User: Fold this.
Amino acid sequence: MLKLSEEWVLIPLKNLGFLGRGKSKHRPRNDPSLYDGKYPFVQTGDVTHAEYWLTAHSQTYSDKGLAQSKLWPAGTLCITIAANIAETAVLTVDACFPDSVVGFIPDPLKANTAFIKYSLDLLKQRYKEISRGTTQDNLSLEKLNSIQIRVPPLSVQDRVAVILRTYDDLIEVNQRRIAILEDMARLQFDEWFVRFRYPGHDAVPLVMTELGKVPEGWSVSSLDNLCVKITDGSHWSPTSQPAGKLMASVKDMGEWGFDLSKCRSISDEDFDKLVRNDCLPLLGDILVAKDGANLNKHTFLVTEQRDDLAVLSSIAIIRPNEQVEREYLTAALKSPDVSARIKQSVSGAAIPRIILKDFKKLPMIVPPLKLQSKWVANFAPLAEQCRTLTCSNFRLRAARDLLLPKLISGEIDVSAAYETFAEAAE
Assistant:
């Protein structure tokens, strides 16, 4: 086993490479002339939603935008210092980012990028504690450098990085497979229920409705007419967090289920006090994120019975009736045109949220049940693969996170772990 006093030393992050804030000097920041160019512009939300690699960005800079910013090279470690504190991801392309993100470029003779990222992930909670302020949490460069990182020799860093990166690489592969399956499902949904090119469509004329022309025999109905229940989760959130039961919010939602490893723990006593609206898979319940930045971003069908899980009021619970297939309704709620109409049910400037009484009036296109069932027969195998891959990723993250502190701290013999890991991979 490695002796920490001899081989692992505490070093400030700034002494392991270049550390600097992103730039976004122009005011106002929302000046349209800064955007829609060829230079990727990464924001805090993009870093937060990334796994290891930062592969997606929500905006691009023009030449004017680049001139008032800075282009960071691929391989830069991005660290958020505002809003979502101490989230990390590694750039896959050259990109700009604002001063709410810090970039770290390691000295190749001193530090391994992946090792530093995992070290920061392990220290994330501590960073959050020192960044709490009276108004908004903020992690300055000074604060970032106030925490030293325990660093082993570079050869040990490299081995730790290989072990942990293997988990993230597998997660990334699964994510790409999920994206392909989702695209396949989305294309058929759009072909049948948006473009109306379903089997036998040539013989069916279009008729006018409040949502425009739809095939004859189809209808438009409000969401509450298609459901036996539209409600939300608990409006009380206990402050204590001992081990016991789980409480989920929109932050724990994905496209295919909850990441239970991220859910809050609450006591059995507090759980019993909650006025809960249970989510029942046998009754086809659908969950919709209805608050904040995640509003309508995640919608999924409940497929697992969890008697130890409660959801907060930031999540809407929808139970469809016999007029609509639950898989069809889930996909319809996620479609772009319905999402745009959902935004009309939103209220609140600081924290936008779906208002249930307006949400219930949401108009929905309803194809014949027989056609819905035919689409579901094609969609179900794709959905099952997505759920299986998602569960696999949850397990991979849990295994990585269990191993991470032991490797980063030097608690276990890295050389022995690496050899065992290498043998298992062959």
